From TrEMBL:
Gene Ontology terms for molecular function: hydrolase activity
Gene3D superfamilies attached to this UniProt entry: Nucleoside Triphosphate Pyrophosphohydrolase
Occurrences of domain Nudix hydrolase (ranges): 7-137
Protein name: Phosphatase NudJ
Species this chain originates from: Paraburkholderia kururiensis
Essential cofactor(s): Mg(2+)
Length: 163
């Protein structure tokens, strides 16, 4: 029997604020309809900035331009010292254009909506994870890291080893 290989799931999320309201998605999950920031998984060969731009467009139809990293968050589901599932989430803030009318949303997304922080806080039982509010609170507290902090080193073909 081969040993289990542990690997965290790398995800990205977007915070978009307009007039004190935040862009959210209502999505189907295994636990019913939940609220979340536009978010999803990093795909092979993609930078974190490219991933959050893509995921926001796919889930909301709003073109997204990241401006800063709000934070990096880790969540583990499962018993302590067991593999379970670990998620490493990179949350960015930025601006979004108007929704593209001809763009369909991802299959699990029911709708997009704009909520104030207070409305979102009052709907805590509907959050996909505790990170939904934590990320908004960090954003409201002014946490911002410049995008050049997040570096992607593209690796091409391997160079031949020196003798």
């Amino acid at each position: 029997m081969e040993p289990e290989i542990w690997a965290p799931h790398v995800t990205v999320a977007a915070i978009v604020e307009r007039g004190g309201r935040f862009l959210l998605v209502e999505e189907h999950t295994s636990e019913g309809l939940r609220l979340n920031q536009p978010a999803g998984h990093l795909e092979a060969g993609e930078s974190l900035v490219d991933a959050v731009t893509r995921e926001t467009l796919e889930e909301t139809a709003h073109p997204f331009v990241p401006q800063a990293l709000v934070g990096v968050y880790m969540t583990h589901f499962g018993q302590p010292h067991e593999s379970g599932a670990t998620y490493l989430r990179f949350t960015f803030c930025g601006t979004a254009g108007e929704a593209l009318a001809d763009r369909a949303l991802d299959a699990d997304i029911v709708r997009t909506l704009w909520m104030s922080a207070d409305e979102l806080r009052a709907a805590g039982e509907r959050h996909r994870t505790p990170l939904v509010m934590r990320c908004i609170d960090d954003y409201l507290a002014g946490r911002r890291v410049p995008l050049d902090f997040v570096h992607t080193h593209a690796v091409g073909p391997r160079r031949p080893e020196r003798p």
